[in-house]
Fold this sequence. Notes:
The structure holds two protein chains of two kinds. Chain A is α+β, with helices and mostly antiparallel strands. Chain A has 16 helices and 14 strands. By secondary structure, chain B is α+β, with helices and mostly antiparallel strands. Chain B has a single domain, classed as Lipoprotein localisation LolA/LolB/LppX (outer membrane lipoprotein receptor (LolB), chain A). Chain B is 18% helix and 48% strand. Chains A and B meet through β3, β7 and β8 of A and β6 of B.
Amino acid sequence: MIRFLWKGLIRDRSRSLFPILIVMAGSFLTVFLYCWIGGVQNDMIWSNAAFQTGHVKIMSRAYAKEADQLPNDLALMGVDRLMRALKKDYPEMIWLPRIRFGGLLDIPDENMETRSQAPVMGLGIRLLDQKSPEREILNLKSALVRGRLPEKAGEVLISDMLANQLKIDPGRQATLISSTMFGSMAMANFMIVGTVRFGVTAMDRGALVADIGDVQNALDMNDAAGEIVGFFTDHIYRDKIALQMERTFNAKFSKENDEFSPQMIPLSQQNGLGEMLAMTQKASTFMISIFVFVMSIVLWNTGLMSSIRRYGEIGVRLAMGEAKGHVYRSLIYESLIIGFVGAFAGSVLGLAVSFYLQIHGVNFGALMKNSTILISEIMRARVTPASYFIGFVPGLFAPLIGTSISGIGIYKRQTCQLFKELEV
Amino acid sequence: MKIQHTIMIILLASVAFAQKYSGDEILDKVDEGMTAQTKIFVAKMIVHGRRGSRTIESKSWVQGTEKSFTEYLAPAREKGTKMLKLGDQLWTYSPQTDRIIKIAGHILRQSLMGSDLSYEDMMEDPHLNHIYTAQVTGEEMIADRPCWVLQLTAKTSHVAYHTRKIWVDKERFIILREYRFAKSGKLLKTTDITDVFQVDGRWYPKRILFKDQLRKGKGTEFILESIKFNSAIPSYLFSKATLRK
Lengths: 424, 245
């Protein structure tokens, strides 16, 4: 039966080519857009998580309220003790203390007088430990443009754009001017040993990356940190687990009447990322629903046209005594073959393009020169296990639904009228 | 009847006394008391932050209104930090970095040593009548002292505070309270002089509470430990080279 139908489809291209092309185009678009939207969303989430929010972030309640202003005077104290508690209570997470700070980087001339200055956005992280997860999270090895990664205290990295702006090369001494935790002016000398480019405009404009120990010394933040960020070990954000963790942590450590008690906030409740996650999820669902609906309409129409074109054929088949149910089923089987071939070809094509964009990406750097949001300049698609069937399943069923609806017309044919119709 | 007469006489006398001075003349007298050829003083600044208080001690040498040199004596982290003001320029030296950095631009608006004062406040011309015109708007009692209330309006737009409201002690010609406003009318800083003392025949603030209204916290207390007027100050002190010594 299948062989018979297959031959029919191959030999009568008008019956198969157009429907297959439609299903293929639809499946391709679904797979590609699903991978692209997912990839861009993933890039955006990861850029935010890696540089700012973590998958969860712990701050003092007071710091959390004014986090945009980097109020290190409200930073967490007793960080070592808190880190021990976190590692004990949530061993499945990577916990990292960080200090974010603003300041000025002053480059001296040969007389140690100011030669040039530029504002910097500082990030104090566990940098000196070769095995520090920060190196992988911030992708420091790949981000390195010139020089090397810091190996000892007092060595820092700055963004390549900033180095070019200040006209300096690695190996140069610089003075950081900032504020201590107590608001006094903080001045500390550092050796710039390398320049980095993260591919995130907001960071690349003026980042200074230093070891957290050096930053604690410079900003008078002994055993203190602005924030502790937590990451799932596989770097994939899971909102339900993060929310559960938030509840248990805050119930244990956070006190409403103590503005300096720690408070955990999951990624979805920071920087409007929750809304963005929900929005892209909805957009994705909407897009697939629209695809299935439109495809069904188009293929229903195709089925109707085919039925009209094959009006005579179906009539003859019925006149020869073929049961209406049999004719109907054969059309359904045909549509399944069309759906399978089209959906398979469309999915393969969509996956191929998505894989290419997953590796190479598209550089939107030119459009983000003044961007302040944390998003990678190179946006990539992301192929996930769901990508393999997200276009295939609707592609397979859309012609089926279309044919099922249009095929009902077979049951409206009157056997007594057939010869009269065939005479025409 | 006698009481009514007495009150009338007091009221008339105070009106007559008020009319004796215009706003600008009162301001002149205030400036006269606050400025000297030279000043050498040791001060303590207690910064009451959200997490607690800390005390910063310093010694300053001031010549006229253009030159000043400050060395921080405590706490240990700030010890040896120096600041030099020459005209409208300000440099700071930190012993940890052995660097002299010019403080300019937006840093001038930042907090001085974490206090409620900014570098801009430190740079301000102490002669208020150079930058403001004054108008007497009323009379009030501050800490049981009769005061004139003066409204100061900036003569130029290049000032940190567009308007000020000051309460001047009628007898001692010393400011006892001050509100500083932005051009929008927003209250930026308040100053309350809670103690005064007399040195070399002039009344001078001994304890001042500064409060930056845009910051949370309980303000900064400035306590003048000692002050000498018109003592000789060697000129080399007001040079960048001295910052490193």
